[in-house]
């Protein structure tokens, strides 16, 4: 009696396969990952090398006081005097009254 109604809709393709024209991004991520680990390994080896180099330097007791590489006490005193004079100038500036009256007060 009743005929089976058969509607034909536009069917979407269920299996869509991408053409292999584009670049393989998985390959580039592997390159980035390997570079990251190589840089990490290199920085670890470099820091270990620097640590050993610094660790083998002579201690203060081995340094000769009269060596030309030592900083002279006169230069240290000059630097301390400079900073002391700067501190005194800063205190004077802070304690002096302002020449311009602040209109917000």
The outline comes out as elongated
Range of strand content: under 5%
Structural category: mainly alpha
Number of strands: 0
Summarize the helix and strand pattern as letters: HH
Mean pLDDT: 80
Helix content: 40-55%
Radius of gyration: 38 Å
Written account of the structure:
51% of the residues lie in helices and 0% in strands. The chain is an all-alpha fold and 105 residues long.
Question: Top keywords for this entry?
Answer:
single chain, 105 residues, mainly alpha, 51% helix, 0% strand
List the helices and strands and how they pair.
Blueprint (H helix, E strand, L loop, with lengths): L24 H31 L17 H23 L10
Entry summary:
With 105 residues, the protein is an all-alpha fold. It has helices at residues 25-55, 73-95.
């Amino acid at each position: 009696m009743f005929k089976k109604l058969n509607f034909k809709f536009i069917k979407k393709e269920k299996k869509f396969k991408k053409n292999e024209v584009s670049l393989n991004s998985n390959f580039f991520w592997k390159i980035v990952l390997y570079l990251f680990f190589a840089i990490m390994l290199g920085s670890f080896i470099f820091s270990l090398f620097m640590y050993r180099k610094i660790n083998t330097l002579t201690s203060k007791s081995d340094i000769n006081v009269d060596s030309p590489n030592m900083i002279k006490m006169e230069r240290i005193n000059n630097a301390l005097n400079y900073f002391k004079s700067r501190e005194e100038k800063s205190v004077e500036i802070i304690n002096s009254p302002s020449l311009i009256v602040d209109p917000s007060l």
